[in-house]
Design goal:
mainly beta, Immunoglobulin-like, 3 domains, five-stranded mixed β-sheet
């Protein structure tokens, strides 16, 4: 009898292996997964962990011509990053330099409410940071803000604006212009893209709302930005030309010091947001 049972077991085993073992394994795994879902409840939903983060959104632009690389603090906590490979045992701040923005693209999520922004000259090698200036910000949950460091050593300033990203037409690109040229000439600048005037930004520290413009097809040639005042025309360098894609937001910044040869007025275009 034992021999008969062994023979039957071998026959059934071969039958299962050749015809249905894969189905049995799949069924067993399905039962285990179903049990896990019941046991875990909402925790088993992979989308539950992908809910968008709350908080205000903040982006910082360095437009102060004679200020060094900056280290930023929000409520005494580092806002800008640190170098991943420092030159000393202690990590050094990744300085936000003139003509750059932080984050490089998009916004950083921060706690809403009243926030104290502190702007320091970034620590270099062993030198200590030096406090330069700062400002108090009011940040609301779910809203977007841009903060600009402007002016020069005699009068550094912080300019904060709420970014209204409401779009009337998702098929358009959106552009705004900030005139942060110290000693900006009277009348400001007439700004054009590929020769088509989009707006006139007047006095120093003026920042326009986002303006709808016609977009270009993906990978189209970048377009030249110009800013004109009388006989003086600023022209964007190749790195600061614009490819206005539908649904994107762009900030054209006029920076520098009028009449200065060291940091003359310049057009810059941080990465789109």
């Amino acid at each position: 009898m034992p021999n008969a049972q062994g023979f039957l077991h071998k026959i059934l085993g071969r039958h299962l292996n050749s015809y249905s073992m894969k189905s049995i394994v799949k069924s067993f795994i399905t039962v285990l997964l179903a049990a896990a879902v019941v046991a875990c409840g909402n925790e088993s939903d992979p989308l539950a962990s992908l809910k968008p983060a709350t908080g205000a959104r903040l982006r910082f632009y360095h437009a102060a011509p004679d200020a060094p690389g900056l280290a930023l603090y929000l409520n005494n906590k580092a806002f800008s990053g640190v170098n991943t490979v420092p030159t000393t045992p202690d990590p050094l701040p990744a300085a936000v330099t003139y003509f750059s923005a932080f984050p490089v693209r998009n916004y950083a999520a921060v706690e809403p409410g009243t926030a104290t922004l502190k702007i320091n000259a970034a620590k270099m090698t062993t030198a200590e940071e030096a406090a330069l200036w700062g400002a108090n910000l009011t940040l609301e949950d779910g809203k977007y803000y841009s903060v600009f460091a402007a002016g020069n050593a005699s009068a550094y300033e912080v300019i904060s604006v709420e970014d209204n990203r409401t779009v009337a037409d998702a098929g358009k690109a959106y552009v705004r212009v900030a005139n942060l040229v110290v000693n900006s000439p009277a009348g400001g600048y007439e700004v054009a893209i590929n020769g088509k005037v989009i707006t006139t930004v007047s006095a120093y520290k003026s920042i326009t709302n986002f303006i709808a413009i016609d977009p270009v097809a993906f990978n189209s040639a970048a377009q030249t930005i110009t800013a004109k005042n009388g006989s003086v025309t600023l022209t964007s360098a190749s790195a600061d030309r614009i490819q206005p894609y539908a649904g994107r937001f762009y900030t054209i910044i006029l920076r520098g010091v009028a009449g200065d040869t060291k940091t003359p007025p310049t057009i810059s275009l941080p990465l789109d947001i």
